[in-house]
Design a protein that fits this description.
This protein is an alpha+beta fold and about 400 residues long. The chain has 3 domains: about 1-30; about 115-200, Pdz3 Domain (Roll); about 205-410, 2-enoyl-CoA Hydratase, Chain A, domain 1 (Alpha-Beta Complex). Helix content is about 30%, strand content about 25%. The protein has 10 helices and 21 strands. The strands form 6 sheets. It has a 6-stranded mixed β-sheet, with helices on both faces. Strands 3, 15, 16, 19 and 20 form a 5-stranded antiparallel β-sheet that branches. Helix 8 runs parallel beside helix 9 (about 320-330). The longest helix is centred in the N-terminal third of the chain and has 32 residues, at about 1-35. The radius of gyration is 29 Å and the shape is globular. The protein starts with a helix and ends with a helix. The model is unreliable at about 1-40 (pLDDT under 50).
Length: about 400
């Protein structure tokens, strides 16, 4: 009986020891995955299994020293430091097209592809180094406020614009929907003020107009990007051009891809399919992390026989290079302008927690003739440059490249 009691006591002691040890081990692990601070906690501090051999002690040592020693405590924003650390990690890949986006940046990126932003809806430019209204968008707050092409913007909310570049002026005028911006404008040497309420502005991916030369009419289609709404907008304009060409109202078409930064790869394949025969390969995708794929024409295009010239420049990148390169390779169109940007990789947008995002390079794309244009771009068949006086912006009057394209089309 005594031995049995002794055995039970030993078992009970062992159980207590194991429970206590387990508790202490769990407590240790918890303490090592949760870093407590005076005003916040950092949770999920442990890394992924793939990073199990990375010692993060230097990271936390640096974090702690910055908090301890940095002179301006007001700038110690834990969320901003956290996002900055992630950006630094992704930037270490030295791939400019793989990058981390904060929640605000991710939303802005998506809005851009949807062709929308908050502002007044006016295209700005430079004339003699001065900020000028190139054109107010139709039905925009700018148009409703009476702004006209050629109006100079003298002040923005009372601040002179003489020392601002174009991008700085745009950022000051843009703002949240429902807020107001006060512009001081100059028209015919007279100044006046306009208070404008910002709204959501929808920017068209596709703009269609017509040019005339030698009694012939040309369809001029400007494709700004390959975004969320490009397909629907494109279909409407393509049908309009098809009808006019069938009725001999237009002699041909100029497709303007200048300063088109790209967008969705599938969008470029869809637009290319408007001009190329069924079954043709538009672009080849090669990768080590996703499946290789040939993107082919899988529909009957509406504009397979219309005479076509494509305008390109150094701002034509990515999806716009896929489109112009495929049309060149199949000798479907002449390219006019300047060498393109040279972006031959494919990025996958990934939504992360808290609304953040990651754009990561997953593949490279190859043109039908086998060219990988990364870093070298696509050369035009006919080189043409716009010589614009310093301090001015491109207008129809000084658009030599478009003139050359129209002349080539009518040969």
């Amino acid at each position: 009986m005594k031995n049995k009691i002794t055995n039970w006591l030993l078992i009970l002691s062992l159980a207590v020891f194991l429970f206590g040890s387990g508790y202490k081990i769990g407590e240790y692990k918890a303490n090592n995955s949760k870093v407590e601070k005076n005003d916040y906690n950092i949770i999920n501090a442990s890394g992924s299994s793939s990073a199990k051999n990375v010692d993060f002690s230097l990271f936390w040592e640096t974090w702690n020293k910055v908090e301890e020693k940095y002179i301006d405590k007001k700038k110690l924003d834990s969320k901003k430091m956290f996002y900055g650390a992630i950006k630094g990690m992704v930037n270490s890949l030295e791939d400019p097209y793989t990058y981390f986006l904060t929640p605000d940046e991710n939303k802005s990126s998506k809005d851009d592809l949807e062709g929308k932003f908050d502002g007044i809806g006016a295209q700005l430019g430079l004339k003699d180094y001065r900020i000028v209204i190139v054109a107010p968008l139709k039905d925009s707050p700018a148009e409703k406020a009476g702004l006209k092409s050629g109006d100079f913007i003298v002040k923005i909310d009372g601040q002179p614009t003489k020392d601002l570049n174009l991008n700085q002026a745009v950022l000051k005028i843009r703002g949240q929907k429902g807020t107001k911006v006060k512009l001081t404008l100059e028209r015919s040497d007279k100044e006046f003020d306009a208070e404008i309420v910002r709204d959501v502005i929808k920017v068209q991916s596709v703009e269609l107009s017509y040019e005339k030369k030698n009694n012939k009419k040309i369809a001029y289609l400007k494709l700004n990007q390959f975004g969320e709404n490009t397909k629907d907008e494109w279909n409407k304009k393509a049908e309009e051009i098809k009808g006019k060409y069938k009725n001999k109202e237009v002699s041909g078409m100029v497709l303007d891809l200048r300063d088109n930064p790209g967008g969705y790869l599938e969008g470029s394949v869809y637009v290319a399919s408007e001009f190329l025969p069924f079954g043709k390969t538009v672009v080849k995708q090669e990768s080590t992390v996703i499946e290789n794929k040939n993107y082919q024409v899988l529909r009957n295009g509406a504009l397979t026989d219309i005479p076509l010239v494509v305008l390109i420049n150094k701002g034509s990148a990515s999806a716009s290079e896929i489109l112009s390169g495929a049309l060149r390779d199949y000798k479907r169109a002449k390219l006019v302008g300047e060498n393109t940007f040279g972006k031959g990789s494919v990025q996958e947008p990934v939504d992360l927690s808290e609304g953040a995002g990651l754009h990561v390079t997953v593949a490279k794309w190859i043109l039908p003739n086998g060219d990988w244009i990364n870093g070298k771009g696509i050369a035009p068949d006919i080189k043409a440059e716009n010589q614009i006086k310093d301090g001015n912006t491109l207008t129809r009057e000084n658009d030599k490249q478009l003139d050359v394209a129209i002349t080539e089309l009518l040969k």
